[in-house]
Amino acid sequence: MSQLVEFPSEDGPVVVVVEGGPLTRGGGGESGVIHRAQRTFEEAVARVRPAVQGMVRQMLDVAEPPDEVTIAFGLDLRADVGGVIAAAGSSANFTVELTWRRPPGERPAASG
């Protein structure tokens, strides 16, 4: 059953998300009830940061690292656990784009 979940924000305003799929109106019952999350919005989103950072590190740890890495993924926000990477079935879905703009063999200039 879908429900609205209210996440407090560290900056003050709340973020309201739909948990459990599309939210439908009418019919009574629990649909549409607002639940307050135990974590802030920022804490919920931060739960996926280690996975994203790990993926970026792996994509950049190649002999010829790309100039750009783009990773797209779905994010579910849940009242009980916070942020989780959205999955269809039992596996997470990622779209990864790597971009090279340098000629092959040319290393980027050291930063700093």
Architecture overview:
The radius of gyration is 19 Å and the shape is elongated. The protein has one domain (3-99). It contains 2 helices and 9 strands, in the order E-E-E-H-H-E-E-E-E-E-E. The relative contact order is 0.19. The chain is an alpha+beta fold and 112 residues long. The strands form 4 sheets. A 3-stranded mixed β-sheet has the order 2-1-3, with no helix packed on it. Residues 25-29 have low confidence and may be disordered. The longest helix is centred in the middle third of the chain and has 12 residues, at 49-60.
What brief labels describe this structure?
alpha+beta; two-stranded antiparallel ribbon; three-stranded mixed β-sheet; 9 strands; 112 residues
Strand content: 25-35%
The counted number of beta strands is 9
Q: Counting H and I runs of at least 4 residues, what is the number of helices? A: 2
Q: In angstroms, what is the radius of gyration?
A: 19 Å
Strand order of the largest sheet: 2-1-3
| Average pLDDT for all residues | 74
Q: How are helices and strands ordered from N to C?
A: EEEHHEEEEEE
Main sheet makeup: 3 strands, mixed
**Number of domain modules:** 1
- Uncertain ranges: 25-29
Give the termini distance in whole angstroms: 52 Å
Considering DSSP H and I runs of 4 or more, what fraction of the residues is helical?
Answer: 10-25%
Structural class of the secondary structure composition?
A: alpha+beta
> Based on CA inertia axes, which overall geometry fits?
elongated
